[in-house]
Amino acid sequence: MTSAFSGMARVDPVVFKAACPDCRAHFELSANALRLAIGATPKTTFYSFTCPECEAAVRKPAGERIVELLTGGGVRTLRLHSTV
User: Fold this and answer.
1) Which domain of life is it from (predicted)?
2) What is the pLDDT along the chain (84 residues), one digit of tens a residue?
């Protein structure tokens, strides 16, 4: 009997390298550990995570390339809407 998945390649989970500005630790995070918020301007577009070393809440700006990498890697995305 042949499995329906026999021809599929195994895909390793995506991990992202990150650093904490508070404790200066460097580590890898899975897509589930990151959040991406896309706003109307570059100033309101950022990604966030909790440092696994010191548990600080970290928020960093996300330019176009970072947004592309994070969304392509499966990071959950929140689109912020303008109230104007």
Assistant:
1) Bacteria
2) 455 556 666 667 789 999 999 999 999 999 999 999 999 888 899 999 999 999 999 999 999 999 999 999 999 999 987 655
